[in-house]
């Protein structure tokens, strides 16, 4: 048994260790995340040049996005298992280095097959980073800062997306699309070295639990029963399914909204890329900052706010998505994209904080990995391909002559055509985003009632002696 008289002193020392190096860790991990999403979206922003050069169809382009996400999702559970057992900083260095080499490989591609191979390898590296980095941040920052810290960390996602969307056309226009990948890949190789500067905290260092108890759980590792408990953890599953539906929507938008602006509304590519990047960036600052601050504030007295704020924001974004798709005014379209994205980004920090709050520290990398697998396999693995498929299908005059095609025509979702390409109906494809956002909002709101009980249960498990495990002991390699 642990001497209760020593708990206060232990917790003070624990807080000091948890805060040591926290900002260094945040800056390094944020920079890596920025490069991650810069790479993903520089591909999207230069799609006209790549598709013309490699003769890629809409369906193939959507499939290319899916290939990366399949690789990313399949390898995430493997990296999550490793991340709960071995030194996380070394795994991060491997992951960031591998994805950076794959990015350079994308620039070397001379065929569609080459590009598919490079993006598949990219997914392995990014899976390593994506499931391990949040667990380090959770351990080095206070529990009461989680929503804000994770919101700030994931700001790199839209910030990197905005930079990719804005810089991609500029680099491709002046130096060719191959150079765009080199510009992103080389800094990633440098960033991989900085992983060795990161702290390696005891798993659960921010939970307010004595260090010796945390080390006992870390040494024991997760048991089969822990994994089974995770699958019936209502807060965890509602959060994952809510994020999956959201990811279907936002993933499809990030891939196809640039094409919608270029081909459907015939906006200048470079100007549209810059404006869309600016909208995404500012929306992320507003949405993620508001989401993190508001939910941390409300959750002090009502933990359910993590779910409720996220769910209501998803539903509130739907009218703005519709206005963006059916308006013909350039200023209105950009304003509506900004409003929709700001509301959608509200959920990022709170939903990830839910996972951290209800999952034991020695299981968190696996929990984030399973979450990553689920949200992509149920979400944006399919949405870019399905939206591209629908855009081709409802570009066909025969399909538009059907009753559903006539309904789309009546609401303004009509085919357009770019010289040298068959007709397409990107608005019809992007309408798939609407039911996904509605479903996300409903699921997240439904999950709110479970959170207080499961947060208390996680803390009780962490304070108790660990279950016996047959798993190998956690090691620092």
TrEMBL record:
GO terms for cellular component: membrane. It is a multi-pass membrane protein. The lineage of its organism: Bacteria, Pseudomonadati, Planctomycetota, Planctomycetia, Isosphaerales. Residues 25-453 form the Major facilitator superfamily (MFS) profile domain. It is found in: Membrane. Signal peptide: none annotated. Keywords: Membrane, Transmembrane, Transmembrane helix, Transport. Pfam families: MFS_1. GO terms for molecular function: transmembrane transporter activity. This is Sugar phosphate permease. Its main location: membrane. It comes from the Bacteria. It comes from Singulisphaera acidiphila (strain ATCC BAA-1392 / DSM 18658 / VKM B-2454 / MOB10). The chain crosses the membrane at residues 21-38, 61-82, 89-109, 121-141, 153-171, 177-198, 240-262, 274-294, 306-326, 332-355, 367-387, 426-448. PROSITE patterns: MFS.
